[in-house]
Design goal:
seven-stranded mixed beta sheet; 35% strand; alpha/beta; 2 domains; Rossmann fold; four-stranded antiparallel beta sheet
């Protein structure tokens, strides 16, 4: 994966929750958990918002993320002491535990830029999923012109205890199924830049990797209201998968 200052710099990690507040996607993944206490694995848990909400409901939760600044913020949240926090890349995580639910939200799948990375993460999901378990993750629909959508984003101003921060975004490159962009964050005392690249695979490509990993697709939704995926209109491809045996 391409290093991204958004996840590595403590000052930018602090802004992550402001850019990604509780929303429909969080509600969706929270609703995926069973009514009774169960084991849940969150791969790419970020600042731990979903993990802590699941723990509050009585689930046994493990949150995995490679970025120590993100996990440091997660550890300060209510219910954090009930969560097992692991610093690891998703494909490298290993445990003897098997999980009823494995989630990967926040379009984490799109930061896996090579076939090898994508397959490795899905295979690791399969390795840690119980025979009757469910896994879920999402990727943006590549049929939407995301570069054009993001080009319309106006600058965003955040208010932190240290002062105001102005955030801007600029598309820097489109190449095949990859889109690169740069974000700038103007703090009162310094301006930080973060470069990111995302991969926009087709539904058929993703489902091919799912099959190769030993998982099977149960459902594909096009948005967080669980509407069916429509190739020309749906913003999301939300994959619900299970063991193939």
């Amino acid at each position: 994966m391409t290093p991204d200052l958004n996840y590595e710099d403590p000052r930018l990690a602090e802004i992550y929750d402001l850019d990604n507040p509780w929303a429909e996607d969080t509600d969706f993944y929270l609703s995926m958990a069973r009514a009774i206490p169960s084991r849940v694995l969150d791969l790419g848990c970020g600042t731990g918002t979903l993990c802590c909400a699941l723990a509050q409901r009585g689930h046994s939760v493990t949150g995995v993320d490679p970025a120590s600044p993100m996990l440091a913020i997660a550890a300060t949240k209510p219910q954090a002491e009930k969560v097992e926090w692991i610093q690891s890349r998703a494909e490298n995580y290993r445990s003897e535990d098997r999980f009823d639910l494995i989630v990967m939200m926040g379009h984490v799948f799109q930061i896996l830029l090579t076939d090898e990375e994508g397959l490795a993460v899905l295979t690791n999901m399969q390795r840690h999923l119980k025979p009757d378990g469910t896994a879920a993750f999402e990727s943006r629909n590549p049929n939407i012109d995301w570069a054009r959508v993001w080009a319309k984003y106006a600058p965003v101003e955040h208010t932190l205890p240290s002062g105001h921060v102005l955030e801007t975004l600029q598309i820097t490159r489109e190449c095949g199924d990859l889109i690169s962009f740069e974000q700038q964050f103007e703090f009162p005392d310094v301006t930080l830049s973060s470069s990111s690249t995302l991969r926009f695979m087709s539904r058929a490509q993703v489902e091919g990797f799912i099959a190769r990993s030993g998982l099977v697709v149960r459902e594909v939704f096009g948005d967080w209201d669980r509407s069916p995926f429509e190739p020309k209109r749906s913003p999301e491809m939300i994959f619900i998968v299970a063991q193939s045996w």
